[in-house]
Amino acid sequence: MASKSKADPNKKPKGRGFFGSIGKFFSDFVKRFADGSIGTKLSHFIFGAGNFYHKQYVKGALFLLLQIAILAFMILCPTINGTPYGYKALANLTLKNVTEGGQFDPVSGKFAEFSSNCQLMVLFGFVTIAVIIIYFIIWNKNIESSYKADMDRKVGKKPSTIGEDVKTLFDQKFHITMLTPTCIAALVFTVLPTVFMIALAFTSYNDPDMNAAGTKLFGWNGIENFKSVFTGEGSLGVEIKNRFLPVLGWTFIWAIFATLTCYFGGIILALLINKKGLKGKKIFRTIFILTIAVPQFISLLAVRNLLGEYGPINSLLQNLGWIKEPIGFLGQNPGDSEVLAKIMVIIVNMWVGIPYTMLMTSGILMNIPTDLYEAARVDGASTTKMFFKITLPYVVFITTPYLISSFVGNLNSFNTIFLLTGGSPTYPGYAAGGTDLLVTWLYKVTIEQGAYNTGAVIGIFTFLITATITLVTYRRSKAYNEEDTFQ
Amino acid sequence: MKKLFAILLAVLMTATMFVGCGGSSGNEGETGEKDDGVIRIWVGEESADFYQKKCDEYTAAHPEFGYKIEVKGMDTGSVAGTITQDPTAAADIFTVAHDNIGKLAATQCAKPITDETLIAQVLADNPESFQKVIYSNTNGQTYLYGVPYISQALLLYYNKSMVTEEQAKSFEGLREAAQAAGTKAITVTGDDGFNMSFALLARKVSDHSTTVKIYEGADPAAGGSKGECNCQGDDTVAVYRWLQTYAADPNGFKWPSSDGWDADLDKNNLGALAVIGGAWHYNTAKAALGETNLGITLIPTFELTPESVEGLSSVSAGDVFRGGSFADCKCFMINAYSAGSKYAKEQELLMYLSGKEVQNASYLECMNVPAYVGAADFIKQCFEEGKVTESQYNLAATQVSMAEWGIPQPFVTGTLNTYYYSKNAPAVLRAIIDQTAYPTTGDILVQDTTSLEGVRKALYLVEYLWMHGVAPKEFPASLPDKA
Questions:
Q1: B residues 368..397 contacting A (CB < 8 A)
Q2: B339 to chain A, minimum CA–CA distance in Å?
Q3: Model-level pTM greater than 0.90?
Q4: Peptide bond before B439: cis, by omega within 30 degrees of 0?
Q5: Do residues A213 and A262 share a domain?
Q6: Which is nearest to A458 in space by CA: A412, A415, A416?
Q7: Are the beta carbons of A310 and B424 separated by less than 8 Å?
Q8: Could you please report the per-residue DSSP string of A246-302?
Q9: Residue A314 and residue A173 in one domain
Q10: B167-190 pLDDT, tens per residue?
Q11: Measured between CB atoms, does B343 come within 8 Å of chain A?
């Protein structure tokens, strides 16, 4: 194993930083306006004007078309399901001018005016903001393009044609071409929904008194939903106050136990299977891999039936006369032991989780250089010492990122809990049962109770916790800090 | 070439995401505002083929109708939610349980029935109890929204091999059979507000009376007034105190197991000898017991004990009550986003589909119990003519009879449904039956649900939750006497 290098040759020089970049952007902006040609100055107001000035007609026309299209979008305010985009969507973001629907006209069979849909008002508002941001990016690019042509002219170069620009996109700027579709998809399918859901955390989404339907009209209510975690006065009542900390606590206990049991269980199993002299290694390995081949949800449902009230295990124990009443292994009924249910889910999770770690660790074990062990043996090291000084550090170093992702995955382990216990034992009056994790509670709060605003609050807390743990542990891990040193 | 291929692949993947997540293009029942010459209908999955056949017959017999009809089977339990999420993607006509009418009307997902002939047919054919719950209000104007075509009620399925017909008539008889079998007498299909209505809506047999009121007199025209609620009457207190004892009895009531109520009923497990469920549980109950062992009858009666009436003035030991039920109807509704030009034809079609002839045919082919007054005679006639089996006859006849012991879920405005089901009142009622504190953890609202005062306090909480959707900040020093 190589030692940690003292100097870091790969360390990047310090950049100008976030504020430095902003400062440079504005200084460039002023410089371009001051130094640019009349075309560049004009392109601050009319997209593509600079390109037209430099006779780059196709590029200029493209910029101009984009400006016209975005301005038309903003002014004409196209509507979907009666909800507008454009400047009206910005006004609608206040959620103040909502209508509760108009009169029904029996002759035409139509309503004079449909009820406002606050969900769409919020969503379209954010889409419009995204369009405005894109507008400014194109605006900057159009000025940049014209200014570049100015500079080319100054040094006696001919400004690039559209053909040359396209060629560049397939050559030096190929990364931009490749990343553009991905960025668009990420914006539409990840960023916008995330921003929308975060916004819902600040609304009275499920306030039943907002209108008779209780589904479409709502307003902004600041940080009330976050406060309700501590006061219990939100739309979810005392549930969030009384159940948040117990559920959070169990989520951590579960994640720690589920991760460590599967991790070390897998390592131990791999060591046993890879032990020198063991016959039928391949058969053992295949048997354990078979548990991966069976879809996880089938395994979990099978175990749920095994441990059920009328399942084989309870029946067997009853037939043997060891128990009179079925044991609520999975906390099936209110009043069943929460601790037993928690222990059972951790044990069952080992059954479905250990083979993955075993498989991965087997690969790592087979790749540990044998000369390390030979050298240790020559030095008189015992088997235990070799395990703790060679095997374990080697495995841990390589699997640290897996360990972290496994821990975060277990924090959000929906399948195991939902399919095994469904969160039981339940506490009448609360959606969150004894074995519910934040993520399964989130499912119940949103899908079953429609409290999307409270769900968004729980989601934000879950994100903050998982993101913090991931970042801190990963950045402090050897696998990150000594990325290039372990050979 | 490689670069071009990579770009095409990236663009294709992005385009696929947009297409996949985009809206449908009109062939999946999208109505929008356009009239494409097709009327689309969503009905229960079990009846889709039947209604498609009936619609085809109608269009063949009435070529002047001018529209093609497409029927699609949907899960009627969740269809109202689907429609409120995006009514533009829903069918022109859909079917829902009547308690969804208020919500769909208030969210302007449905348009009212305006055809005078259709309205006259609905009012002439349907019982008064159904007529009360198919109206809703739009901007101060009350309209008829739902066209009933199926009726539903809770009833009792029991194991005929272990329980005699006589024993199945009462909870006491069921307990006697359970003692002999060494098991529990009865279970339910769920602990929610609907399935537990058998206890809440129990009625005195001698005069069919109950003091329970759930949003009675709710007036949609007055901006969604909640009307009157009461669940603190002496009879309600006595019924729940009686049920506490019955649930604590080793051979009495049990909650459904996590393996499902059908596992309890299963002849191999013998977890419970009977279950209270709806007609939609018929096939599952039949699978659990086998058709020959499956008994179907009214929800049983029970006799109040001296302990259950102690301290109560309006009820006496020996008073006989029968378990009640929400007696519901399923209704056709018209999508508000369906093209205005289809409106008249849609109502014409509903005249036909909700007519007695189609309802009768629907009973024979799909076991849908008709909603119209006098359906019992037709059901009996079918049995006498050998058109249905005994258990099929029992299923329908019992539902019709149970309707006399029930009330429709009286939810004519949007939020009351949510208030009744989702604001934890069912959990409080369960805590009473289990004699546990409510809630069992956190800030306890009702510590004692065992004593008379405890039960009264818990029932006060239930009524408060129905009316306000949240628990009271404090309980009154002396609870109002609503006996």
A1: none
A2: 8
A3: no
A4: yes
A5: no
A6: A412
A7: no
A8: HHHHHHHHHHHHHHHHHHHHHHHHHHHHT-TT-TTHHHHHHHHHHHHHS-HHHHHHH
A9: no
A10: 999 999 999 999 999 999 999 999
A11: yes
